[in-house]
Amino acid sequence: MPTSIRQSVHVTCLVLMVSAMLLLPARSASQPNLNFKRVTVNWPTIELYFAVTCDGDATYSMTKQDLKIFENGVEVKDFTLWCPDPTVRCAISVALVFDASLSMQGAPIAGAKQAGHTFVDLMDGVTDEATVIGFNNVVTIHQQMTTLKPMLHTAIDNMTLALWTVVWDGLYAGVLELVNQGVNQCRAVIILTDGRDTSSNRSIAEVVALANRNRVRIFTIGLGNVNFTDLQMIASLTGGRFFNAPTPGQLAAIYTEISTIIFEGFQECVITYQRNCADGGMRTVELQLVNFCGGTDVKTKTYRAPLDST
User: Fold this and answer.
1) Whole-number Å distance between alpha carbons of 2 and 6
2) Sheet holding 186-193, edge to edge
3) 249-283 confidence digits (pLDDT tens)
4) Distance between CA atoms of 98 and 145, rounded to whole angstroms?
5) Against a cut of 0.85, is the pTM above it?
6) 97 closest CA partner among 226, 190, 234
């Protein structure tokens, strides 16, 4: 083939390829994902907790103009929005609650104490505060809320073991200490257990209700082969997270991960608004993220309003 014809064919093919590429649909730069986590009812206040990612990366730059809320199909226009600032470390108040039953003897209690020391070491020693609580047949507050890290370390070392496992009583005591003594914005209970509750006076429902009324998150850790169902439910209902630790050696890393979540404002946003009709009915809440990060996402949750016969 003559050179001039060959060059003409090459140019024609190149033009066709470029034209085809120009006709292809433009690829979206990013897409939002709205994770509508839960609805908490502190009547008459309704709280919607959620997180947003853009192409898998967490973002907290939303404004009220980026969000719409509908309850039973009617738009809620009067609401407040709060999101954490990832560049600012949130001051924490934390209850460190440990299983101190005899089943924790040996490596389990040693691993628990090491994890507790790891968490205390991550506190700033100035504003961050914590309390140390152990439970077996009774609940013992080994150290009330303090910012003094040496006192917290001593309290962790001084935990002793005894029979039985009053898990829910220990958890309730941790929440109560935060309600009565915790002064910082980011408040959470971290509870570690290796067994079932045996004889608590408090129930799971009481623990969850007290935590949600006071905006306390509960992080639960199951050590070894325990029934995780209740621990998972408590964490889910209060905005914490459940962790499974098959061996004591994994506890320190788990406590470090939990500290990061708390320091970052629990890595979630919250919308609050008011309702005034306590009719006991079910409500469907639709949360919309509109024209944000190159797209729109919509999620729904339901809740039941309280019943006021008057």
Assistant:
1) 6
2) 139-146, 129-135, 92-99, 186-193, 217-223, 242-245
3) 999 999 999 999 999 999 999 999 999 999 999 99
4) 15
5) yes
6) 190
| Overall residue count recorded for the chain in this entry | 310
Burial grade of 14 (CB within 10 A; 0-12, 13-18, 19 or more): exposed
* DSSP states of 94-132: EEEEEE-BGGGTTHHHHHHHHHHHHHHHHS-SSS-EEEE
Whole-angstrom Cα distance, residue 211 to residue 215? Answer: 6
Residue 26 pairs in a beta bridge with: none
Pairing of strands 269-274, 80-82: antiparallel
Q: Parallel, antiparallel, or unpaired: how do β-strands 92-99 and 186-193 relate?
A: parallel
Rounded Cα distance, 177 and 171, in Å = 10
Does residue 3 carry a pLDDT above 90?
Answer: no
The single-letter DSSP state of residue 231 is H
User: Cα(82)–Cα(163) distance, rounded to whole angstroms?
Assistant: 44
Check if the beta carbon of residue 289 is closer than 8 Å to that of residue 48: no
Radius of gyration of the chain from its Cα atoms, rounded to whole angstroms? 26
